[in-house]
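Structure representation.

___
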Amino acid sequence: MTDAGTITTNGSTGGLPLNSRAHLIMPFGILAMAIIAQAALLHSFIISDFSLPIVAEVSHSSTPLLFRIGAAFTPDGGAMVLWLLMLSLVNVLLTLQLFGPAKSPYAQEDDGTLFKNAMSIMGLLIAVLGVATLIDADPFLRIPVAPLDGRGMNPQSQDILRVLREPFLYVGLAGLAVIHALTLSGLIFKKFDRRIAETLRFWTIASWLSLGAAIAINAYRSYSQQAWGNWWYWDTAENSLLLPWLLTTALLHCRAVLEKTETLKGWTAFLGLSALAVGWFGVYLTRSDLFGSLSETLNKPHDSVALLIGFCVVFAGSYYLFWRRGEELGEPRSFELVSRESSMFINSVMLALIAAVVLIGTIYPLVLRWFDGENITVGGPFYVEVLVPVVVPLLFLMGFAPTLRWRQDEMWLIGRRMKLAAILSVIIILFVSIRFIELSPAPLIGIGLAGWILTASLSDLWARLWRQPDHGESKYRNLQLLGPRYLSMTLAHIGLAIMLAGGAASSIWEEQVVVSARAGQSIQAGPYNLQYEGVALLAGENYATRQATFILYRHALPVTELFPEIRYYPIRGVETREAGIWHGRDGDLHVSVGDRADDGGRIVSVRFLPMMTWVWAGMIMMLIGGTFSILTRIVLRFQKNGVSTS
């Protein structure tokens, strides 16, 4: 008999208390049912069971197997089943974290009521989304007479990147559900403190990483598959990914402050609730027909209504509880304006403000259309003009944040620490502005801020490695003492700087050539020369294609061949254009072909984007930083080798 009055055994469970095993039964049962549901739906798509309307609507017997599997995630019901599966999976992981063999040290405190409440809230969220799925788009409804074949998959969705994006998106949203449950449980229990922050650490990083991966995949998909040549378009689907990621980034910083100093309780709790709120609302926007034609929307009054009602009920209750507990989330300790807490708080507020602007820009056309029927589009120019005054100071403060001290710091000490970074960033700005005197201010500011963040991160890393006499002569030991949290943050900041520099440079020095080309004609773009060889008619698995061939030369030496295409999908009667892309050390060459011109040639569009590879490298480095943090936390949790995790 243990102190808590629970009986233990020495069986195969390794001495796990019986009440802990009871905590595992329900989550594993829910996960088993979710796996069965997902497997049944996948099987229906694989065998092309057209008695299910969901299969007949988005699949066809000629659709390749990989995309039939991917199609199971794209319709309303299919996406909801995937979301429920991911929620069930993270529910099991949360249970193991809190009550498993390597359980949280706080699991038995107060009889574990705090974390039991969190699991109850997770169960409630799963139930609400399950009911919404059955009401809005039950994927297992059958029709008495099955059609001979389906309508086929949307050609824009017949893309391996689209298939990969959906699991990352819903894993991220499932992680936000855990954050929401733990936050709400802390508010109910009136103990939103360091132990909540420590438990949130893994889930916040994992959600940030998963949503960031979905954003990176979506960005590259737009860039590579759509033949548009750009990588962000501020449409509803992209903004629905960006909104929760921005608030999760803000939460990532505030959670660290709460864990370190037990301050910013109210703001951290608000972000913990709001991250899932904007993610849920984004799913509703993309799954509903609100952005379709007004007549079609009015003819579908019940589209995703249950999902919207569930959203209103869950978050009305959550924010009401937050309001009631607001006075109890006061700050037990204070911090000065010049401190790391203050810097991270200001940065998180700016991130939340960016998210608010993106949300307003996303729903404003919808609100205006419902008021007076006018259709407008809010695109890149609006976001650039509105967000630049917020993003610029945010990025500027980002360079300072890692060097600031907790509680209080001195301006003269900050100036001394940032001296090297300031000098190097000024040199970068002067070099670029003198070398390209006609440069507009906006890209110059982008390059300057990228240089500022990069030099600030590297100079701070240099100072910590080589200016720490207390750590001895071993620089490897100094690197160990920095801890995974600092190293992952540094990698993420450096990745952001690289991505920012690549995006600014590609917009500055982009070259675009549009010509009517004939076989054998050469096209010059940047340091590359393309020789057009003509177009061949070919047959794909479920499409016909006109595939052009280009031989790519650099300094008169052949480099590779590019094969842009114009595909026609007869099932849907839709034509798509697939770009040919070369990722070179000088930049990306983006080639697409169009129809015949009046003179009998083929319309060819070539874009040379210098340093575009930096954009993708920066995104990958940011994701590596998050992955490094998660993996090291897992290793240190189980090995407990004494290395600092701060």
Q: What stands out?
A: The radius of gyration is 27 Å. The first helix runs from residue 18 to 46. Residues 308 and 417 are 50 Å apart (CA to CA).
